[in-house]
User: Which sequence fits this backbone?
């Protein structure tokens, strides 16, 4: 039976308290060590990598590339005429602004049909 004020009871209570203090100190020390490790690694990287992130800035714009403006659906230019017609058939719809593109399954080759 545990009796408050008993030497054994108080020793156990002090042991629990000491274990808690030690565990908290250990966690704090691990956090501090991790923070120091991160700072040391960053300092080392800064010393080793003295070059800027981007080597030479491009100060002139890229040359203009003309593009064909699309007014609607257009199949890929490398499809045959029959494949282009098949693609356009799948994209036709009677509703305004809605195509049947949801019927196209992603990743499936149209030539397999």
Assistant:
């Amino acid at each position: 039976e545990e009796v408050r004020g008993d030497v054994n009871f108080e020793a156990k209570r002090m042991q629990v308290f000491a274990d808690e203090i030690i565990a908290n100190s250990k966690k704090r020390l691990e956090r501090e060590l991790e923070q120091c490790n991160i700072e040391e690694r960053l300092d080392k990287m800064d010393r080793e990598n003295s070059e800027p992130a981007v080597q030479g800035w491009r100060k002139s714009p890229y040359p203009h590339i003309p593009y064909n403006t699309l007014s609607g659906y257009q199949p890929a230019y490398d499809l045959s005429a029959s494949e282009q017609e098949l693609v356009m058939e799948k994209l036709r719809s009677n509703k305004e602004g809605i195509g049947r593109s949801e019927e196209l399954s992603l990743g499936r080759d149209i030539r397999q049909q």
Observations:
- The CA atoms of residues 20 and 49 lie 43 Å apart.
